[in-house]
Amino acid sequence: MSRRSCWLIHDRILTARSSLDSRPNVPPISELRRADAWELVCRHVSNPSLRKHMLAVEAVMRAYARKFGEDEERFAITGLLHDFDWEIHPSAEEHPEIGCRMLEDLGYPGDIVRAIRGHANYLGVARDTLMARTLYACDELTGFITAVAQVHPNKSVAEVSVNSVKKKLKDRRFTANVKRDEVDEGAAELGVPLDEHIAFIIEALKQEDALKPDVRVDAVR
């Protein structure tokens, strides 16, 4: 990273920190609640599609935590917050680093912050926890499955199958911005066969009903 980029991030962090001075009191981490994380999302994210993505990743992370016998709230909050700074800092030079610094200032646990850093390959942060590997494996693919659902008549994940997802993955023109290599890499790091991983995410989204087409900014505040 260039010196200019470092100074840019430094300035952005100072600006972000100053905005936190007016925040409401944040409970100690022992009392961390999903509601506090959602309040942070609402403060920084107005785009309904981005909110829907974060809610979807939250649902999938919670489902995997349940499967693995891990802390559901910790996994879910990590999924909910992983992109909370993207709308205000939409560049590799800033996201998710500035958001992670903000979370550190707010007292979020190091494993949550490190997992969020780890979902951005370009930061070079090792995904050395199950939570970090799960977030990386779920983020890109959950977004892709959301996109696949949108081309079905009812725009519902209930209409999505493993085969339809794999077919769209092969079509490089469909959501060309999705990093297909990260989809494969994420499943491999998690140690779950890709077909099984796709099926699990689809089922998790069905169960949590995270892809309701009527999720609007005013409906989720």
Spell out the blueprint of helices and strands.
Blueprint: H1 3-20, H2 34-44, H3 48-68, H4 72-81, H5 97-105, H6 110-118, H7 130-150, H8 162-170, H9 180-190, H10 194-208, H11 217-220
Helix pairs in contact: 1-5, 2-4, 3-4, 3-7, 3-10, 4-6, 5-6, 6-7, 7-9
Summarize the structure in words:
- The chain is built from eleven helices and no strands.
- It is mostly helical and 221 residues long.
- The protein has a single domain (3-14, 32-211), classed as Hypothetical protein af1432 (Orthogonal Bundle).
- Helix 3 (48-68) crosses helix 7 (130-150).
- The longest helix has 21 residues, at 48-68.
- It starts with a helix and ends with a helix.
List unreliable stretches of 5+ residues: 1-11, 13-30, 213-221
Can you tell me the CATH topology? Hypothetical protein af1432
Helix/strand order: HHHHHHHHHHH
**How many angstroms does the end-to-end distance come to?**
37 Å
Strand fraction:
under 5%
Q: How many distinct helices?
A: 11
Label the overall shape.
globular
- Proportion of residues in helical segments: 55-70%
Say how many strands there are.
Answer: 0
Average per-residue pLDDT, rounded, comes to 85
Query: Total domains, how many?
Result: 1
Structural class: mainly alpha
Question: Can you identify the CATH class?
Answer: Mainly Alpha
